[in-house]
Amino acid sequence: MSENMRESMEYDVVIVGAGPAGLSAAIRLKQLDENLDVVVLEKGSEVGAHILSGAVLDPSGINKLIPDWKEKGAPINVAVKEDNFLMLSEKGSTKLPNFAMPPLMNNHGNYIVSMANVCRWMAEQAEALGVEVFPGMACSELVYGENGELKGVVAGEFGKNPDGTEGSGYEPGMELHGKYVFLSEGVRGSLSKQVIAKYDLAKDADVPKFGLGMKEIWEIKPENHNEGEVTHTLGWPLGNEAGGGSFLYHIDNNQVYVGYIIDLNYKNPHLFPYMEFQRWKHHPDIAKVLEGGKRVAYGARAVTKGGFQSMPKASFPGGALLGCSVGLVNLPRIKGNHNAMLSGMAAAEAAHEALKAGRSGDELTAYDTELREGAVGKDLKPVRNVAPMNGKFGPKIGMMLGGFDMWFQTIFKFSLFGTVKHGKNDAESTGKAADYAPINYPKPDGKLSFDRLTNVSFSATNHAEEQPCHLQLRDPNIPIDVNLPEFAEPAQRYCPAGVYEVLRDDDGSNPRFQINAQNCVHCKTCDIKDPSQNITWVTPQGGEGPNYPNM
C-alpha cells in the first residue's frame, strides 16, 4: 500500500490553510514560545493565491496580533473616508442616511485592503519568527491516533491517474503529525467537513448558511476614482426575490473592487447569480464609475452567513477549527477577517497553555469557550438574527427587523426576538423549476459585463487534467434523472465558473452532464447549493486552482 511508503514529520502544531486565521495562529504560537515547531500547509501555488475577500478590514485583529504593523510595512494603507449605503431601483437609487445605521455598521477606522496581499505579508512575518510555510501542499487526508484523536494530515500527494490509480510519477505525500492540528481551510473546507461529521460538532448548532461572493478588480479613469470611498447597495437587480447586495470599494492606484454577494438560500432554481452580478454593473450609479475602465481580475468564493447560532463546536480531540471553518463572518458588516485573526490567536493561546502543561491530542475546550464568550462572540451575537430574518421575511422587511434588532441590542443589550432559527439549509431551500418562471438575462456587452468563461480566464485558474476529478458525484445519474426534470439542473447556473454543463445532441435530445473541473475557482458553491446534495468538493493536487493576484 502507498500509505506505507509515506514518511512522517512531527510538529507541535500543524496548521492547514494560510489564510488570516491560520497565519495568525502560527504567528501567535511563535510569539508565545519561539521554540515551538509550527508548520502551515497551503494548497494554493503561493500564499494568497486562493484568498478572495471584499475587503474592508476591521483592524482589531491585526492590532492585537502585530501592534506595530504600520512600521513593519503591512499592505494596509487605504483608510475608509466615505461610507455610502444605497437602495437601488432599476434606474435610480436612494441613499440611506448613515445616522440611521446601527453604530456597528460604521466603517470609520477601517481599511480597504487586498486580503491576498495581507496574507502574503503575514506569511513573511510568520517565517521571520521561524514558522515553516509550505505553499502548493494540498492536504488530502486526515490521520487519526490510537484514541480517535486527530493526529495529523497527509499533504503533497501527486500523480494519481483520473481513475484514482497511481500514475508513473506518483508521489504518496507525507504525513505531518502534530500534538494539535488546526484546520483553517476557509468556507466549507473538505477536511473540516469530515471532522465536523466525525465528532458531531454541529449537533447543537443551527444549520450552516452561505452566500456566493463574486468579485472583479477594475482600473478606472482617475476622474471616476475616489480613494477610500466605500459603497454598499441593496435592492435591484435581485429585488425581493433573493437576499444579497453589492460592494464597491475605491482602493489606491485608480482601482476599485466591485463585487456581489447572493444568499444561497434563494428559491428560484432559474436564478443565475453570476448574471445578476453582471447585470448590476449596468446600473447608472455603478456604470458611471466603471465606464472607460477595464477589468483586470475576477474570482468567486462562498461566504459564511449563518452567524453565531450556526457555529459548530470549534474544539475536538487533537485540534480545532479556525476562522471561516467555524463561520465567523459578521453578515451585516460584511466582515470576517478580524474574527478569523482573533480565532487563530485564541486557538494558539489555548494550545500553548496545553503544551506548557505537557498535554497533547486532547480537546482545547478553553478555545471554544473564548470563541463564544470573548471578542468574537461579542461581535457576532448582536447580529445573529439579521440573516434568518432576511431568509424568513425577505430582504426589505428582514432588513428593517434586523436593523431594529441591532439598534435595540445596542441600547438594551438583549434581543426581543431571542435567537431566530434559520430553518432549511441552502440546498433544501431550492424550489422546483415548475413553480418559478425562468429569468431572461441580457447578454453581456463585453465592456461592463462579461461571459463566465472570459472572466474565469482573469482568475488565472489551472488544473492538470490527468488527475481524479475533485468534484465528486455521489450518484452520477442524479444530475440528469433528478436535478434536470425537478430543478432545471441549477448547477449550470449557480456555478460562477461554468464548471457544470448539460450537453445535448443537435435536436435537443440525449441530455448528459459534463464537469469542466479545470475551470473550478474553489468557491465550494456546488458542495453547498446542489439540491440533491450530490456533489462533494475535495482538494485537487497542490498548487492548482486560481492564482489570484491582489484579491
UniProtKB/TrEMBL annotation:
Domain 4Fe-4S ferredoxin-type: start-end pairs: 511-540
The protein's superkingdom reads Bacteria
Q: Which cofactor does it need?
A: FAD; [4Fe-4S] cluster
UniProt KW keywords: Electron transport, FAD, Flavoprotein, Iron, Iron-sulfur, Metal-binding, Oxidoreductase, Transport, Ubiquinone
Q: Coiled-coil annotation: which residues?
A: none
Q: What is its EC number?
A: 1.5.5.1
What InterPro entries is this protein classified in?
A: 4Fe4S_Fe-S-bd, ETF-QO, ETF-QO/FixC_UQ-bd, ETF-QO/FixX_C, FAD/NAD-bd_sf
Q: How is the cofactor bound?
A: Binds 1 [4Fe-4S] cluster.
Question: What function does this protein fulfil?
Answer: Accepts electrons from ETF and reduces ubiquinone.
Q: Which PANTHER family match?
A: ELECTRON TRANSFER FLAVOPROTEIN-UBIQUINONE OXIDOREDUCTASE (PTHR10617), ELECTRON TRANSFER FLAVOPROTEIN-UBIQUINONE OXIDOREDUCTASE, MITOCHONDRIAL (PTHR10617:SF107)
Instruction: Provide the protein name.
Output: Electron transfer flavoprotein-ubiquinone oxidoreductase
**UniProt organism field:** Paramylibacter ulvae
